[in-house]
Amino acid sequence: MNIILLGPPGAGKGTQARRLVEELGMIQLSTGDMLREAKSSGTEMGLKVAAVMDAGELVTDEIVIGLIDEKIRSDTGAGFIFDGFPRTLAQADALAELLSRNGATLDAVIEMRVDDAALVKRISGRYTCGTCGEVYHDETRPSAVDGVCDNCGGTDMKRRADDNADALKTRLMEYYKKTSPLIGYYYAKGDLTPVNGLADIEDVAKSIKLALR
Ligand code: AP5
Asked: CA 175 to CA 153: how far, in whole Å?
């Protein structure tokens, strides 16, 4: 089964993707994580995209399609969760082409609906374990022991460079201009299932599982 988690910055895509990985053994393909990894390891591509990401703008289609193409080729059969990809109509067309080239199909697109006020709160309180990537929030999902990851015991908690008010404004504008047209694109194909992303993390997870049945 291959699925897309579609939604604005802070909608909870990464949080829910990690649960699906644990519970269904699927593979999470987060273009944001891949780009951050390239950025922190200082690769040529990482240096090229750093300023674009920090400002909250979208990286070129060519770069992200290349990243996904490489991952899809190493398919292990468990199914992919596309998290943060596609983000433009060109990326959506490229994904259809890449899947069909690999004899695969897209099985569902989960649209996570969250309003802007909640997104601002979520983004401003987010921190992540630098060791295993577990996602936390100051108020809604703090780690049990301050500064220590519940999942792996790591102590390298991080906040993202683009989780600030200015970059978030740009990220939201990019979402509404370039990514939200994908809602109509997938609705027209009959692939779209909206879920209430404003519910708590457990309830959102239940709605997604129901949609995937
Ligand atoms: P990316 O990393 O994809 O960021 P994003 O889409 O902005 O999404 P986020 O990771 O911010 O949010 P999320 O929906 O995963 O929410 P999370 O689960 O963390 O992209 C970063 C940048 O990379 C882009 O701006 C762009 O520059 C570039 N990029 C990436 N992909 C690209 C592409 N395809 N094309 C071009 N450029 C690309 O949750 C957020 C917080 O809320 C957490 O603290 C969490 O604990 C909390 N939370 C989650 N769910 C709930 C809930 N139900 N209730 C309460 N709190 C919750």
From this structure: 34
